[in-house]
Amino acid sequence: MSTDDKNRAIAAAILPLVGGAGNITSVAHCMTRLRLGLRDRSLVRDEALKALPSVMGVVEDDTYQIVLGPGTVARVTPAFEALVAEAPTPVASADDLAAQGAAIKAARKAKNATPFKLFLRKIANIFVPLIPALIGCGIIAGLNGLLINLGWLPGVTPALAAIASGFMALIAVFVGYNTAKEFGGTPILGGAVAAIIVYAGVAKIEVFGQTLSPGQGGVLGALGAAVLAVYVEKWCRRWVPESLDVLVTPTLTVLVSGLVTIFGLMFVAGEVSQGIGDFANWLLENAGAGAGLLLGGLFLPLVMLGLHQALIPIHTTLIEQQGYTVLLPILAMAGAGQVGAAMAVYLKLPRNGSIRRTIKSALPAGFLGVGEPLIYGVSLPLGRPFVTACVGGAFGGGFVGLFNMLGDKVGSTAIGPSGWALFPLLDGNKGLGSTIAIYAGGLIVGYLVGFVATYFWGFSRELIEEFDVDTEAAAEAAEARPVAAGGPAAGTDTGTTAEPVKV
User: Fold this and answer.
1) What is the pTM of this model?
2) The one catalytic residue among 30, 137, 236, 390
3) Residue 390 falls in the annotated catalytic set
4) b (16+ CB within 10 A) / e for 5-35
């Protein structure tokens, strides 16, 4: 037996005992060991491996390591890699895509653990619990506006207005409470300091030559005031004697933070909030189509990176100022591009029943604005379809942005929902009918462009060859296919020890 044949025989004896080629994710070697990445550790037959004359032992670490000895391992590894490459390629299924998507998601999450992104996560944790109230009050406000326009139930509309507006009038208090809780302070003290912002009595106070107005600074002022309160409280906990803590700490926390809020934060936060509103209006009035194209196209990558959380206070500020956020309907177009891309994938892979079932089950959620199952289960693992989904979102966002530039503002009275679920929350400056029509038009553009871009440019020839296969038939064939070198089928255990290869 030649040296090459000898090394191939060793590799052929090892392969079925580690679960076959389909169980191998990586192959490498060091000075003495063949290092294998495995999909399923339970498929490995340790005792049979150890019984092979060429195997000196096995070691389990981050990889499965088979000790072959110096010299031998360097020669056996290429033969092993060749056998793995020659094995029939496992058919990619929806489960494979889901696993790839989960791995990408986990990697993104680990990569996102930077100080800046952790800070953004804190900001999200402050505002996300408020979303149910924003949605409920937003829908009631929309219903009330419809009743007023139709002239129906005039005796009821004032009550609906009070119900819809009560939460928004006090949202600063809730933001302050959640902020203190998230940053490690006493929540009620954060809420107490933030409540100063909405207190009617601040209208009697003059700061920097201007009289303050209740609500000035809004959620940004409440956020800053509560963070300051946390730091003052923590300072007091360190230096105030324990016997006086219950009296002195809350008093100093509210007093110091309250004075800074009144004579500084409310004014500064008010200017910043006004600047955000003015800039958003200016941007969409003067560069609406371009801004919509950019925002709609980049939103899915922003979500992946966790940077979309920075937009939550901006949305809330716009809702507090103007009654709706003009940014959310544009950003929602990213989901429309994703839906269009998924439908194209469905048609491009007619033989892959597994992926098509995943798309069918995830599409209803996608239409309602929940895009994560389609992103991490379909488009992102495939690669190109994720890019073409972003293209669809860009064109949908450009469509909505264009009408904003022409004077038809399209906004949402709450954050959280998107897709079809955003219809009950839509509001604008030209009537509900016009607003709904523009938003619906943007969705259609997003669907169509996402579909067309994915269908014609979302797949390479190699991608089609890999994924457009009958997963069920391939799985049955794999089960029936005998393994080379007389071994058992990959992943099976006959209960016997493999016959050692004589070398």
Assistant:
1) 0.70
2) 30
3) no
4) ebbbbbbbbbbbbbbbbbbbeebebeebbbb
